[in-house]
Amino acid sequence: MSGFVMTLVYFRPGQKFDFLDFWRNRFIRLYPLYILALGLTLVYYYDAFIAVKPQKILANIFIVQSWIPAYAQSFNFVAWSMTVEIFFYLFFPFFVLWAYRQTTRKLIWFSVIVWVVNMTIYHIMWIGYVETNYELVLYFPPMYFGSFIMGVVGGIWYKRVGREENLPASTRFAVLAASFLILATYTVLSLDFYPVLPHLIQPITGFLAPLLILFIVALSLDTSPISRFLSHPFLVMIGELSYGVYILHIPILWLYEKILNSFGVANVQGILDATFLPLIIALAYLVHFYFDVPTRNWMKDYFKTISLRLVLVDFLIFIPITFFIFQVRFDAKEYRFLYREMERLVFWVAFFSRPLLSMIFGVYRTSTLFKDGYQWAVSVFASISTSAVLMADAAYWGYRTGWFENFPRSIFVIDWFIVLSLMLLARLAIRRFVKPRLELSPA
Questions:
Q1: 197 vs 347: CA distance, rounded Å
Q2: Alpha carbon distance 343, 208 (integer Å)
């Protein structure tokens, strides 16, 4: 479905493909609800937050958890599929540019071959490795390459050929009904007779992709009352909520269950069974219209004023420095027994405060970076200095309350100096070697 829908929107032969615009739009569409769901999950785990390895939380924040098998099901475990989506987004533009020059027949054969190879590799790994590498077999992004390519090629066929085919309405409906019945039959049989299927074959990685793309294309071509019913504005709106329902339902379920237990409710499972579905749909509706859409609109406007290059450079500078500075400053034994928890607290204060303060002080704005004078340096100095104070205050608070035994003042001075110096040098290099992007004023 993801490949098919993206192709409908972005397969435009003869037009220039704007890579940056595509990736920016995909990020904006995906990330607000994703990070909200992750935040709710961390609220659920609030009492263990500091004890969790920062790299596990970072893997989830940057949506790379499925590339690390041990982290694939961490926190909001359904979010592993977002790593797969990001993987698709990265190579989709390149595949589309290649597909412009290929015939439809060649693309269909290519998708079939890729799918067969993909399923063969998956089947071999399922037989030989699933007991010892379960997360790698089921959640590793390349395992879904075949089904995605089949969806993209299905979308290309639909745009090039399908819409122009003057097929009788009865034929279109027959294909739709047949594909649906086959899928439904497989679903029932796999549920009732799953243990006798060869090597416990699962459809999760695209085993049913050929049937599914046939069903999707047939549904797109169908003109029967079923399609008109599915096109009703209310059902279209429900479709808009589907991502919110999917990404939010696990943390909402956990928090809802925790609240019911905290009130001493007797039949928690019965209440969940009766109320959770309408609750998650209602919450997805509220979140979509009052959080997701406004946030996406704000991000679209904000991204037009900033340099994504600066954001990436800053993260690459301060994350490793702040994460490893305690380990570099102290020996292994001293670090392990005295400073590991302080390092994690300081790191998370830096991780959230530095980007926020950089936004407040205009550090990422292109207009600030390329403006004459030293406003760009003043902005960096103000944001990094303020963040350093917050980091030191957090560590000192932990020391004063007895959480930590020592308060290493030199750490915060060293961190401040190194991060500030590297960020200023990076901006000097960008000002020297990168041409400023002209911002267009509204007419």
A1: 49
A2: 47
Give me the pLDDT at residue 191, please.
65
Residue with tokens 């003869």: 14
- pLDDT tops 70 at residue 34: yes
Domain boundaries defined on the chain: 2-221, 241-302, 306-433
- Mean of pLDDT over the chain: 87
Mean pLDDT of 395-409: 90
User: Between these two residues, 273 and 195, which has the higher pLDDT value?
Assistant: 273
How many other β-carbons are positioned within 10 Å of the β-carbon of residue 418?
Answer: 15
Q: How far apart are CA 94 and CA 374, in angstroms?
A: 40
The contacts found for 359-365 with CB under 8 angstroms, 24 or more apart, are 363/310, 363/314, 364/306, 364/307, 364/310, 364/311, 364/314, 365/305, 365/306, 365/307
Backbone torsions φ then ψ of 103, nearest 5 degrees: -75, 160
How far is 251 from 44, CA to CA, in rounded Å?
A: 7
Work out the burial of residue 262: count CB atoms within 10 Å of its CB; fewer than 13 is exposed, 13-18 middle, 19 or more buried: exposed
Give tens-digit pLDDT for 341-394: 888 889 999 999 999 999 999 999 988 888 888 899 999 999 999 999 999 999
| Mean pLDDT, rounded, for 252-281 | 91
